[in-house]
């Protein structure tokens, strides 16, 4: 049974063993899991089989960004592993996103395909340094509309932009929001942050949480505390 929890726990670990150790303490009825660049680069697709075998739906977060043909092939390869969600960078542009969409449709692969807008670790000064004078909020809007028009199922953005994107792109357009910091957690390298309950109220469809759970002394207690914040406890 797929979970209806909005929580996606980021398994940012340097080994398959460490990741599976954490997965074994989590419950597929209470969260999905995200496999990112570090873990996938070390473990390869084996981690996906192991997590699927434990009943988890997996977001494979490799943030593809390349020429259209290359990204379409990578997205097909990811989807054929049976993952629930994959992502690309919206800044790869319309033709890249359309190629990825077209490939999934042609192969009848139901994996959700979303696009990263502006990383939650970035603020205005970081954008200015790479030549983008727009504010993070304006740049997210621009890329989200482009992503929607290019056939994406949703975007990765910060929860700070979720309510505006709900107006622009509707409630069905997924808003997957990292940079979630429950009351007990520190910001770390994240810059555009929000608390879990505020993020859901703002229109986030899914909340990506990593270190506040995985680095907690008691990860299960941290997960339960987030669930309690979500239910207004
Ligand atoms: O695509 C992502 O998942 C992502 C996009 C983004 O803009 N910001 C962001 O933090 N992430 C990921 O979300 C997770 C956040 O982890 P914590 O900061 O530890 O909660 C990490 O795995 C990041 O790679």
From TrEMBL:
InterPro entries: Aldolase_TIM, OMPdecase, OMPdecase_AS, OMPdecase_bac, OMPdeCOase_dom, RibuloseP-bd_barrel
Swiss-Prot/TrEMBL catalytic activity: orotidine 5'-phosphate + H(+) = UMP + CO2
Metabolic or biological pathway: Pyrimidine metabolism; UMP biosynthesis via de novo pathway; UMP from orotate: step 2/2
Enzyme Commission numbers on file: 4.1.1.23
Catalytic residues as annotated in Swiss-Prot or TrEMBL: 63
Occurrences of domain Orotidine 5'-phosphate decarboxylase (ranges): 6-226
CDD domains: OMP_decarboxylase_like
A Pfam match: OMPdecase
Superkingdom of the organism of origin: Bacteria
GO molecular function: orotidine-5'-phosphate decarboxylase activity
Keywords: Decarboxylase, Lyase, Pyrimidine biosynthesis
Protein's job: Catalyzes the decarboxylation of orotidine 5'-monophosphate (OMP) to uridine 5'-monophosphate (UMP).
Family membership: Belongs to the OMP decarboxylase family. Type 1 subfamily.
Name of this chain's protein: Orotidine 5'-phosphate decarboxylase
Gene field: pyrF
């Amino acid at each position: 049974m797929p979970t209806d929890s909005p929580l996606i726990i980021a398994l940012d670990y340097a080994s398959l063993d460490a990741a599976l150790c954490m997965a074994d303490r989590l419950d597929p009825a209470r969260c999905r899991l995200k496999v990112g660049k570090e873990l996938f680069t070390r473990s390869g697709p084996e981690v996906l089989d192991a997590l699927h075998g434990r009943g988890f739906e997996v977001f494979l977060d490799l943030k593809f960004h390349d020429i259209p043909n290359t990204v379409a092939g990578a997205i097909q390869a990811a989807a054929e592993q049976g993952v629930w969600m994959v992502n690309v960078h919206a800044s790869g542009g319309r033709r890249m996103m359309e190629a990825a969409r077209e490939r999934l449709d042609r192969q009848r692969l139901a994996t959700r395909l979303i696009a990263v807008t502006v990383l939650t670790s970035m603020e205005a000064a970081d954008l200015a340094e790479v030549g983008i004078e727009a504010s993070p909020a304006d740049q997210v809007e621009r890329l989200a509309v482009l992503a929607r028009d290019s056939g994406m199922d949703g975007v990765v953005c910060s929860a700070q932009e979720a309510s505006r994107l709900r107006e622009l792109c509707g409630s069905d357009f997924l808003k997957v929001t990292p940079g979630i910091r429950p009351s007990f957690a520190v910001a770390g390298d994240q810059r555009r942050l929000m608390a879990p309950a505020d993020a859901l109220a703002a229109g986030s469809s899914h909340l990506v949480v990593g270190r506040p759970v995985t680095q907690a002394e008691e990860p299960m207690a941290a997960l339960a505390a987030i669930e309690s914040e979500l239910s207004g406890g």
